[in-house]
Amino acid sequence: MNALRSRRGRLALALVATTVVAVPSVALAGDAHQDRTWAAKQAIKGGTARNVILLIGDGMGDSEITIARNYQVGANGRLAMDKLPLTGAYTTYAVQKDAPSKPDYVTDSAASGSGWATGHKTYNGAISVLPNEKPVPTILELAKKAGYRTGDVTTAELQDATPAVLGSHVVSRDCKGPDAMATCAVNDKVNGGAGSIAEQLVQTRPDVLLGGGKQYFDQTVKAGKYKGKTVTQQAQANGYHVVTDAAGLAAAKGDKPILGQFAKNNMDLEWVGPTPTRTGTAPAKCAVNTARTASQPHLVDMASKALNVLDKQTKRSKKGFFLQIEGASIDKQDHAANPCGQIGETVAFDAAIKKVLEYQKSHPDTLVVVTADHGHTSQIVEEATLGYTATLITHDDANMTISYATSEITGSQQHTGTEVRIAAGGPQAANVLGVTNQTDLFFTMKRALGLR
Ligand SMILES: [Zn+2]
């Protein structure tokens, strides 16, 4: 048995030795007991990247990853995101607005997003502005300025915190459209500001902008050049091709920037299942959400289209692209204490990661980073534990009890202040190793793209 195992190990190593340049991750996934020193060394590459692809699982702490893994592929299985060669942890804390030298240990997606997008810590609710409310440039804006193509993809509203931090700067995350500026007077177009998140996103003009949030693009611009037009009309005047369903997205040629508005609010959930109770639930399996709007693309469809378009647009150019892809409703279903909703979104996010890793295989000069913005409430627990629990039957045909215990079931479950996983492969990926700070990711991506 041992001899067989070591022979197999040598064979695997030999295979790896011939292909490792393009596929640095193969030796690290699920090959138990293998000496990984050589493969890890091979995975460490400095230099610049042609492309950077950042995948954010919103609220996807270690617990959310483990829950999805157990359910979908079993405790000893591996998700696509588990196969990245280099893994570290990073701290996610925000800072207090009135005392920015002091941490706010539990961050929201706005402060954490501003952190990885700009390299600066800020307060909860801030969209790429400092605690003093001054805007700071984002990795997407810097990449665009340097001649890279850019993309921003989410299953949430495009005006939600994670996609918003890349292409807009407002003092409150609530200022999603021209009619929602109550808490952002300083940013309001009427007062000479740059406008709402929706307006600023189409002004920043990433080449690919895909997600929900159509209601805010339908609002009317109140001042300036586009006064009286909707934000969608402003986008079209700026050259955007606007699509509203999967067929439209598939048909878009990508010769113009693409704005996908696939839902009024957030996009629909992939899965449904039992609601946790104080006394637990009977063991159950998750089911596909039959109420999901069939014309909405899945996250993997949006990711594939973004990759195709950006790759095509940069074929003949010296510079590649920066692309952010968010699995947004992992967080939202954690808030809702909906285990199957949360797992379905994590699995859909993992499908997008798989697609990106396939792209990286043929484009090894691409830095891929998979991480989260903050931890969340769900925990794998013994049955009959305090809190609201539901029991699911996993891929292992075993019962897994999940607890939500940061709020009453009638309220919203809350984020946690834990560090989270950050995994990467490609040029500069070694900079995620060890324990880093969320703001370090900005500098890793900036260095990878050779930006100043
Ligand atoms: Zn949240």
Automatic annotation (TrEMBL):
InterPro entries: Alkaline_phosphatase, Alkaline_phosphatase_core_sf. Residues 1-29 form the signal peptide. It comes from Paractinoplanes pyxinae. Belongs to the alkaline phosphatase family. The keyword Cytoplasm does not apply. The gene is phoA. GO terms for molecular function: alkaline phosphatase activity. This is Alkaline phosphatase. Keywords: Hydrolase, Phosphoprotein, Signal. It holds the Pfam family Alk_phosphatase. Its EC number is 3.1.3.1.
